[in-house]
Amino acid sequence: MKPAKFEHQRMTSVDDAVKALGEADKEIRVLGGGQSLGPMMNLRLAQPDVLLDLSRVDGLTDIEEDGNRLKIGSRVTHARIEDGEVPGTTGAYMQFVASGISYRSVRNRGTIGGSVAHSDPAADWPSALLALGGHVTAAGPEGLRTISLDGFTVGPFSTGLGFDEVLTGFELAVLGPGARWGYYKVNRKPGEFADAIGAITVGAEPRAVCGATESAPFRVPEIEQRLSAGADELSVVDARNILEEHDTGFDDYELQIHAVALSRAVKRAFE
Amino acid sequence: MTELSLKINGEDIAADVEHRLSLADFIRDHRRLTGTHLGCEHGVCGACTVLMDGEPVRSCITLAAVADGTEITTIEGFDDDEPMSDLRQAFHENHALQCGYCTPGMLIAARDIVTRLPDAEEDRVRLELAGNLCRCTGYVGIVKAILSVLDQGRA
User: Fold this and answer.
1) Interface pTM (ipTM) of the complex?
2) Model pTM?
3) Is A26 near chain B, with CB under 8 Å?
4) How many other β-carbons are positioned within 10 Å of the β-carbon of residue B47?
5) pLDDT tens column, B72-114
6) Looking at beta carbons, which residues of chain A come within 8 Å of B56?
7) Contacts of A75 in chain B (CB under 8 A)
8) Nearest residue on chain B to A83, judged by CA atoms?
């Protein structure tokens, strides 16, 4: 038995979880698939007193296209996205991202909502979804609200969710059939957490994201402007010069791998 | 303590366990099914891989409490399973194990590859094996064994 002692509570509804969070007088964490929190608890980096387990909660596992919005429940697993359950070009992009997250036996349990709520800077979804754009939906004592993905990730293990809110899903931008996307993750072995992420979508409004930073992933407006103007490539030197103008705190090596990730993401988008 | 009722290798089991007990420790220490091995205990090495409702999962980072109501298959539970019989034979013939520590997880991951990805070629097999660490064989025998079972299925 490796984790510190805690109480595991099976939730039967999101409302129960919101209520429990609101009444908490101890450290309390929401448990999705547990594939990030589980290891952290085994290593005792995380020692919550109470876990609110959402695995019995219905209604958080749907994927549906609704006009120009794609609704994805928070408990949709990486494996389902890898298997192509999300439709269209957005689905193809998300399928590529999902297939690079850890390993199949982890993807079978790990959830997209859990990953974004957990907000490990080296995880894939916080960066990948920022490059897509859209909203997070969260349930709180006042009911449901939507929060823009822009700025949702505040920093390591820190998001725009209130202490008494539960992430219930996403409303994501739908990329048209002609849209392009590129995702590049620098890591030493397939499936590992990223050392650097470059994520690009070129739909109606291009979005470029520098991810796996020391803090939150961020959009790079200079690259987005170039893509809007029709650029179909980005050299490593240019990417590096652009990133140098941002307050990243990168050392020389980090600057280089993030520039490489962005340059290769653009290359992949136009291959 | 929390009450559990689940199926392991076809047997109905009810138990009262500590909240923080992992599924791996429940399988090994409470059920004495020691074929499931523990390596890193944080989801990286794959030695603890079991099937939960037919899908491979890491039993070291899955709580026993979360496995309540599910059906678990450990390495001891594949006696009558055709893909697993083929894989066991192929592992034997291709020298796909040496010390054997990774083998239970490796076989369950291999079974997932041959059943989920019947068209997989060597590159894909190697990619899929990224989540199961073997420090003896260098993977050559393991990859050959899995490819031989895939080839049998394609013949």
Assistant:
1) 0.96
2) 0.96
3) no
4) 24
5) 999 999 999 999 999 999 999 999 999 999 999 999 999 999 9
6) 104-105, 108
7) none
8) B116
